[in-house]
Target: Cyclase family protein
Amino acid sequence: MQDLSAIDLTTTTFVDLTQPLFSGMPGSKVHGRAEVWTEHPFPAGYPDGCHIAVTHIKLAVHLGTHVDAPRHFIPDGKTVDEFDLERFVRPAVTIHLPRQGSVPVTADELAPHMDEVQPGDFVFLYFGYAERFLDEDFHEHPYLTLDAAQYLLQRGVSGLGVDTVTPDMPAQHRPPDFDFPVHKTLLGVDVLIFENLGPGLAQIAGTRRLVVAAPLPLAGDGALVTPFAVVPAPA
Model:
């Protein structure tokens, strides 16, 4: 892993990998609606003209750019705060797999792009959906097959990231017996899942970069994250 102490800030830049946080942002219906609002209280005893702004957020931790912990699908699985912080600081290989619509991505399709992946790395999949976050068809997205998830385990990855709401089949196409095979396969062995990654993925597609994706320290099944990639500054 890259030595953080060796990073020269004069020759380094950072690429934001998040989506914006706002009221009504896209997400699964089961997670409810995000609300963001600002109040301007005027505390007693403060001077006239004193301006105070207080912004509030009310949302499920599985909205916006976030990480799924095992507890999300595994009853006795780890919560976010039970992972060492270093688990959220890893090299990430970002694979550009442009797709249109609800199409499966198999292990055979992943394999040709995995040469740089080392055990312990994150793998981020850039389907081209990050830029469609506000589009009506954002939920009609690509997804991984079970064999693709199993292949990632065989390669020893420590985290999977996607620029969609889930790496599993979109809700509108799931059969009655659907059991979230990708989530259960990965989270069942403590492989983290990052969802709703942002347009910054385009800048690191096809590369292996150090990524910092520290979550809020919640004793829960997921948490908001603001991941960023550490990259050489343009010449």
About this structure: The chain has a mean pLDDT of 93. The domain at 4-19+60-232 is CATH 3.50.30.50 (Glucose Oxidase; domain 1).
